[in-house]
Amino acid sequence: NPFAGLVSHLRASWLSGKTRPMEYRMAQLEALGRFLDDKKQEILEATAADLGKPPFETELSEILLCKNELHETLNNLSRWMKDEQVDRTLAMQLDSAFIRKDPYGVVLIIAPWNYPIHLFLVPLIGAIAAGNCVVVKPSEVSKKTESLMAEALPSYLDKDCFAVVTGGVQETTRLLENKFDYVFFTGSPPVGRIVMTAAAKHLTPVTLELGGKNPCYMSDACDVTNVARRVAWGRFFNAGQTCIAPDYLLCTLEMQEKLLPALRKAVEDFYGPNPKESPDLGRMVGDKQFQRVRRLLLGSGRVAIGGQTDEAERYIAPTVLADVQPSDPIMQEEIFGPVLPIVVVANMDEAIDFINSRERPLAIYAFSSDNKVVNQVLERTSSGGFCGNDTLMHVMLTSLPFGGIGNSGLGMYHGKFSFDTFSHRRGCLKRGMGREPLNALRYPPYSQQKLGVVHAASKVTRKGSCTLL
Amino acid sequence: MESMQQVVGRARAAFNSGRSRPLEFRIQQLKALERMVNEKEKEILAALKADLHKDGPNAYSHEIMGLLGELALAMEKLQSWAAPQHVKKNLLTMRDEAYIRYEPLGVVLIIGAWNYPFILVMQPLVGAIAAGNAVVVKPSEVSENTARLVAELLPQYLDKELYPVVTGGVPETTELLTQRFDHILYTGNTAVGKIVMAAAAKHLTPVTLELGGKSPCYIDKDCDLAVACRRITWGKYMNCGQTCIAPDYILCDPSIQSKVVENIKATLQEFYGEDVKSSPDYERIVNKRHFKRVKSLLEGQKIALGGETDEASCFIAPTILTDVSPESKVMEEEIFGPVLPIVTVKSVEEAIEFINHREKPLALYVFSNNKQLIKRVISETSSGGVTGNDVIMHFFLSTLPFGGVGHSGMGAYHGRHSFETFSHRRACLIKDLKMESTNKMRYPPGSQKKV
């Protein structure tokens, strides 16, 4: 077990209690902030090398959003850490009842390659804030960022309590053989299953942030120009390699015809007449991913916008496919690339049925100037999260939980939800030694009479109380 | 005989019809459940008596009264629990609607245990119904009378398709676990907990595992020993020790060990009289297998009190073992019987270290007049839950989440926590289609200025 030494070292640090005081956690978090400032250039370069990520995107999604989470956490940590007092029954009025937020211990975070800084740091912020020791495993697919995190980050954090581990599938498998007190995984559903199965051997609780095909319904009643821009932005951001990107569109034939020119214009406004030359469009992370998306693009519907690819650069043009059939290859898996298929439906009901006949996605989007339509789609479907009349934006609000359901994941995080995810909420009741005669009601010998008293008493206090024992 | 696939398939079709979602429907089902508990009280108590030798008032207070409280609470609070929660917005989303919706998960599975066979399926069921789900209920086959009764009664009072009861043992449960559920709540032991989670992993099904462990009970020298021992006696020997949050073993200074024994002895007399075996309030071990298991834990131990057994009736007297070695068999696994080992420790530090070197327990108990000491024991250990200066009682406060950590489990329920466990918290952001100008900032072409 190549990682046994590391894990037991971290466990010893955990048992020493080092990570528990608030001051310690704040200091580690502040160091993360310094990392983001000091290494900004390196971050820009690494993500550009790995994903062709435009500096604007990196600054927004990999730096600014992390800083927001950091500040939110630093501002609120002392409040989040406090014991939560809870309502008591009449019989417990003189007792102290509260929920403690205990750290779990040694936790493991497995990060993916598409937002290699954000999806590494945001869970880490929560884990540190909650008082844990942490092992983080960045993705080997985003090589330059992996090196950056493995080499630069450890010097900002307490090496006794936080470690970065690198490697591929083999190393991750060996890592998962160890016992962790929590595992946080971001990645694909098949690997999510493997992670949860490994965690089950140790009864380790997990959060799995997975993916799926996020549908985007467009009603006939909508401002096509705005809709096209919001959808194009969400689809082509990070060259489509976003777990909450709108994966495919559902709309009527009429809407498709109106949408295509609007999308064409949006693409041109964003990336110019030759997107390949735009500094604002990313690239596929690797050859494997490039080939997979190109195969989907070529085998489905008809190319209405874009369609060009360049293997040497791993470039895929912002592409829209029209007249896509539900049975087409591109409708069988999460696309994770800058290709937007349009599937024509007759009406909203058909769109809802279509969505509900498939696995529950991480996000559902609905566009309509008629609020009733947006609400119908919301109420009659199920997904991790939902955004009406825009894409991606719901995950930028730290007060909203971010997570999936069914195949798209379990658990959630962001903001306080991160802190809660990495904390064990421990119910505590502290009683006094007095009032023993009251307790006599619960002791044997049992009798109808005793029960009668208790029953009568509990009837009186039925409002909001559980039992009176 | 219907297959598991058919039963679960029907529940899913029933859920997909949408009828379990309206609040009125959920409350109607909860009301029916309440009626069932009240109308069939006699039958329920009879089943508990047959399964666990549990007598009327005892069974009522442990398995029925709490359930009625949960039902009343859920019906009263459902509207507020299920209401969308509006969240704090930032500048960018000022004009938008941002809230969390509580939605049902779908079809959930509840697997009960045999020690409190009625409430351990019914209490989760209340939460699952309140959250709008379809529920497959699988009571423990070990408590066969209660299982049979639950299978008979539920269809008489509740929607048959939405809330089916499945009975059977290991083979049936194994088959059930191959089906896809949207949440599984399992109450039972650690070994089977791993099997349940592994089965759930195949479908990426979230789980709540209410397991067990050895719940330690530290008695400080500075405490009212008489009171402490009365409370401990109650919690340890109720249900013949077959309680997941029973104080499993005692840690105390050697100087008070014999006093602890004396006090418990006196309390036992008070509770059960001279002849425990003939007390109607003292239960029995659930079956021969567990009887043999618990009895074998006595081998080689110093029995300070009790020790009498009678296989024919699965009777084991309230027993205390003293000067127990931490390496002995009785200190290896959860006892789940009326045997109380005392392990002596010289200090609270030693007690804390002892506790921390073992798996995290479901409950932790500490008795002391010294508030600082209690605080210290709690903050330097980890457990599912805690009661200070008493035992068991944190279970009865539904505002506290009830669940384990580490080997004692994951997730929690009771009261509102049940509702949340069986709900999906869906983040919703509803924006305006207009107001496009603010969006311009985020679109390419990107520029430093925009950032």
UniProtKB/TrEMBL annotation, chain A:
Gene Ontology annotations for the cellular component aspect, listed alphabetically: cytoplasm
Active site as annotated: E209, C243
Q: Which UniProt keywords apply?
A: NAD, Oxidoreductase
Please report the stretch or stretches of sequence annotated as the Aldehyde dehydrogenase domain.
19-424
Question: According to the lineage, what is the superkingdom?
Answer: Eukaryota
The answer, when asked if Transcription regulation is one of the entry's keywords, is: no
Under InterPro entries, the record lists: Ald_DH/histidinol_DH, Ald_DH_C, Ald_DH_CS_CYS, Ald_DH_CS_GLU, Ald_DH_N, Aldehyde_DH_dom, Aldehyde_DH_NAD(P)
CDD domains given in the database record: ALDH_F3AB
Task: List, in alphabetical order, the Gene Ontology terms for molecular function in this entry.
Answer: 3-chloroallyl aldehyde dehydrogenase activity; aldehyde dehydrogenase (NAD+) activity
Record flagged with keyword Zinc-finger: no
Query: Mind listing the GO biological process terms from this record?
Result: aldehyde metabolic process
Q: Which Pfam families match?
A: Aldedh
**Homology family:** Belongs to the aldehyde dehydrogenase family.
Q: What is this protein called?
A: AL3B1 dehydrogenase
Automatic annotation (TrEMBL), chain B:
To which protein family does this belong? Belongs to the aldehyde dehydrogenase family.
Which source organism does the UniProt entry give? Ptilonorhynchus violaceus (Satin bowerbird)
GO annotation terms (biological process): aldehyde metabolic process; fatty acid metabolic process
**Subcellular localization(s) per the UniProt record:** Endoplasmic reticulum membrane; Microsome membrane
Write down the top EC class of this protein: oxidoreductase
Q: Name one Pfam family in it.
A: Aldedh
- Which chain positions lie within coiled-coil regions? 23-50
Q: Which domain of life is it from?
A: Eukaryota
The residues annotated as the active site are E210, C244
| Name of encoding gene | Aldh3a2_0
Gene Ontology annotations for the cellular component aspect, listed alphabetically: endoplasmic reticulum membrane
Taking every annotated instance into account, which residue ranges of this chain make up the domain Aldehyde dehydrogenase? 3-425
Q: Which reaction does it catalyse?
A: octanal + NAD(+) + H2O = octanoate + NADH + 2 H(+); 22-oxodocosanoate + NAD(+) + H2O = docosanedioate + NADH + 2 H(+); (2E,6E)-farnesal + NAD(+) + H2O = (2E,6E)-farnesoate + NADH + 2 H(+); dodecanoate + NADH + 2 H(+) = dodecanal + NAD(+) + H2O
Q: How does it sit in the membrane?
A: Single-pass membrane protein
Q: Which InterPro entries match?
A: Ald_DH/histidinol_DH, Ald_DH_C, Ald_DH_CS_CYS, Ald_DH_CS_GLU, Ald_DH_N, Aldehyde_DH_dom, Aldehyde_DH_NAD(P)
Its Gene Ontology molecular function terms? 3-chloroallyl aldehyde dehydrogenase activity; farnesal dehydrogenase (NAD+) activity
Q: Which protein, by its recorded name, is this?
A: Aldehyde dehydrogenase family 3 member A2
